[in-house]
Amino acid sequence: MCGRFAQTTPSQALVELFKIVHHLDLAPRFNLAPTQDVLVVRGHADGRRSHAYRWGLVPPWSADLSIGSRMINARAETVFEKASFRHPIRHQRCIIPASGFYEWQKTASGKDPLLFTDPDREPLPLAGLWSTWNGPDHTEVHTTSILTTQANEDLLQIHNRMPVILDWSAVDTWLDPTCTERNILAPLLGPAPNKRLQASRLSRYVNSVRNEGPECWGSPD
After folding, report:
1. What percent of the chain stands above pLDDT 70?
2. Which of 22, 45, 168, 185 has the greatest number of beta carbons closer than 10 A?
């Protein structure tokens, strides 16, 4: 599962890394939680664009937005079969650039947060899906979900799931809106190689979704 993450990479770095032609400049976020807006990168006919989408995918046929809080993740093993995801996995894919994501380790005194990042603190290209929901007032709401898969050895002692971290060689395929073949897309959704991630223990300041800013990455006392 991926239930909290950060997006702190400078905008210009994202533009260069993902070859974005139209970029949405958002403030750095250190403690993103479900139902909040997150930055996604999508492929369009005229090139790649970044957008702010609500985290928690809401299918077009949903009665309201509340289902999104239960659909922040999509399991890679069933994404081609589940009614909510089988259209997006073929036609509505995106990347969520994450500076790091959080998991919590239970201890005798409570839950200690761990931040998982690229060893060089480069953005992690998380595989995502998106959808558009139309409200009763005809307002469009764009939503997104992060794909998850079995944990690699970096996370296994903490959690049995992890976000799908795309290999950089797979980014072009994933963002290609004309690619719909399961036999091409499914192999991209396995666990990241071992030692792909580095874990840092943090203070419990980040545990509260109300807290934001660089202090979220503070070391434990």
Report:
1. 100
2. 185
107: helix, strand or coil: strand
Residue 35's region, left for phi above 0, alpha for psi from -120 to 50, else beta, is left
pTM of the model as a whole = 0.96
Query: CA 28 to CA 213: how far, in whole Å?
Result: 8
CA distance 107 to 150: 23
| Residue 179 a catalytic site member | no
Q: What was the pLDDT predicted at 3?
A: 95
Indicate the pairing of strand 73-75 with strand 140-150.
parallel
- Looking at residue 184, what is its pLDDT? 98
Q: How far apart are CA 190 and CA 36, in angstroms?
A: 27
In one-letter notation, the amino acid at residue 138 is H
Place of tokens 């580095």: 198
Q: Per-residue pLDDT tens for 188-208? A: 999 999 999 999 999 999 999
Whether 216 sits among the annotated catalytic residues: the reply is no
| Per annotation, catalytic residue among 2, 81, 179, 181 | 2
Helix (H) or strand (E) holding 40: strand 37-44
What is the per-residue pLDDT for 183?
Answer: 97
Catalytic residue (choose from 16, 77, 81, 103): 103
